[in-house]
Specification:
The protein is α/β, with parallel strands linked by helices and 415 residues long. The protein has 2 domains: 29-58 and 302-413, Aspartate Aminotransferase, domain 1 (Alpha-Beta Complex), CATH 3.90.1150; 66-299, Type I PLP-dependent aspartate aminotransferase-like (Major domain) (Aspartate Aminotransferase, domain 2, 3-Layer(aba) Sandwich). It contains 16 helices and 14 strands. The strands form 3 sheets. It has a 7-stranded mixed β-sheet with strand order 4-10-9-8-7-5-6, with helices on both faces. Strands 1-2-3-12 form a 4-stranded mixed β-sheet. A hairpin with a 6-residue loop joins strand 2 (37-41) and strand 3. Helix 4 runs parallel beside helix 12 (284-299) and helix 5 (118-129) packs across helix 10 (263-272). The N and C termini lie far apart (46 Å). The structure holds pyridoxal-5'-phosphate.
């Protein structure tokens, strides 16, 4: 019960420092369900404004899908609100088993274990099956939750330069003496929208007797011909040893995550993974909602096809308008602005135009790599994107950035 004023001052000055560095994160209050168009109060206290949403992970537009909502309602009535237990005490329902089997079938894996989130899956998985005789070799740009999970594990750790296969090969050679070599990567990297070259990674894993781990949170449900994720895109479906992914993005967007892959690894997670053993089970409405999502995705590729069409339209439109767009195939489309202040000014002007995007800058992305990250959804349609594109053009024109390349933007605005 002691919070001395000296400590309050220390904390207060840390907060001021965050503000002074321009790194303070302001939340925007949404007054509607998650969708392509949302009602936003920003800044706090301002009148609520209707905007086009270009920054959610709602890739398949399933976050507020009527069938998903109905399935969640039914489970609420039939299985209750919550289980007040971890899985292994009295928190496992038949629908949890059903969802784990459905995820294995969808991902083409041997077995699956649910976690409260993918953050928790990544926090628990490494410690569950690796020890000090093993080595984790991870891409330098993996998600923060993987970095944390690796820190909790006793394995030796090493990294390779982002997507650099020569460097990975060198590291695999170096660590031939270890029991397990685990290559760790994101499937799609969230800031650049680029994909890990899983075909090459799997070849190297074969050649150097290594296991492969992929976090496919920004891919499951829509990357690959039938949405099975980056392993399908690269023709290595069924070949990845450990996949983690989230139910909190394309797959309905509520909450939940999983580890899916070799059945022994999954079983070890059930015995040892601390976020599984010591955190509450997924709530029944979320489990039923996720089951409905997988049913929708298994019956038709219409949503991922629509997303692909929207993404192609958007990439082409921005490029033709004269923006610098990071190349790639995923629905994460970064508009490069390089300068941090410029990224904030452009995001603010777009919001005034009714377009909701966020400007990212250091330390979320490397210094001098500031950008607006746009994300497409199957909920968008071409007329909506045309309107958004016009707004981008007006704002780009205002700041005099249309037609400038990287060098031009940096010369005009600095890094
Ligand atoms: C979003 C994300 C996570 C975290 O998922 P949650 O289920 O929200 O905890 C983990 N890994 C990657 C790569 C992500 O993009």
């Amino acid at each position: 019960m002691a919070y001395p004023s000296a400590i309050r001052e220390v904390h207060g000055s840390q907060l001021s420092e965050i503000r002074e560095q321009g790194l303070y994160k302001e939340e925007r209050y949404i007054h509607s369900p998650q969708s392509a168009r949302i009602q936003v109060e920003y800044p706090s206290g301002a009148a609520v404004k209707a905007v086009v949403n270009l920054c959610a992970n709602n890739y398949l537009g399933l976050s507020s899908h009527p069938d998903v909502i109905q399935a969640a309602h039914a489970a609420l009535d039939e299985r209750g609100y919550g289980l007040s237990s971890v899985r292994f005490i009295c928190g496992t329902q038949d629908i949890h088993r059903e969802l784990e089997a459905a995820l294995s079938a969808f991902l083409g894996t041997e077995d699956t274990i649910l976690f409260p989130s993918c953050m928790d899956a990544n926090a628990g998985v490494f410690e569950a099956f690796l020890g000090s005789e093993d080595v984790i070799i991870s891409d330098r740009l993996v998600h923060a939750s993987i970095v944390d999970g690796i820190r909790l594990c006793k394995a030796v750790t090493d990294t390779y330069k982002h997507a650099n296969m020569k460097h990975l090969e060198q590291k695999l050679e170096e660590h031939q003496g270890k029991r397990v070599r685990l290559i760790v990567t994101d499937g799609v990297f969230s800031m650049d929208g680029d994909m890990a070259p899983l075909d090459e990674i799997c070849s190297l894993a074969d050649a150097y007797d290594a296991m492969v781990f992929v976090d496919d949170s920004h891919a499951t449900g829509f990357i690959g011909r039938t949405g099975r994720g980056t392993p399908e895109h690269f023709g290595v479906l069924g070949g990845i040893d450990v996949i983690t992914t989230t139910l909190g993005k394309a797959l309905g967007g509520a909450a939940g995550g999983c580890v899916s892959g070799r059945k022994e690894v999954v079983e070890l997670c059930r015995q040892r993974a601390r976020p599984y053993l010591f955190s509450n089970t997924m709530a029944p409405p979320l489990v039923a909602g996720a089951l409905k999502v997988l049913e929708i995705l298994s019956s038709s590729t219409a949503r991922r096809d629509k997303l692909e069409e929207n993404t192609e339209f958007w990439r082409r439109g921005l490029t033709e308008a004269g923006f610098v767009v990071k190349q790639g195939e995923s629905p994460i489309v970064p508009v490069m602005l390089y300068n941090a202040r410029l990224s904030q000014d452009v995001a603010r002007d777009l919001f005034a135009e009714g377009i909701y995007v966020i400007g990212f800058f250091f330390p979320v992305v490397p210094q001098g790599q500031a950008r607006i990250r746009t994300q497409l959804s199957a909920d968008h349609d071409i007329p909506l994107l045309e309107k958004a594109l016009e707004a981008f053009e007006r704002v780009g024109e205002k700041h005099g950035i249309l037609g400038l390349d990287k060098k031009g933007i940096i010369e005009k605005f600095g890094m």
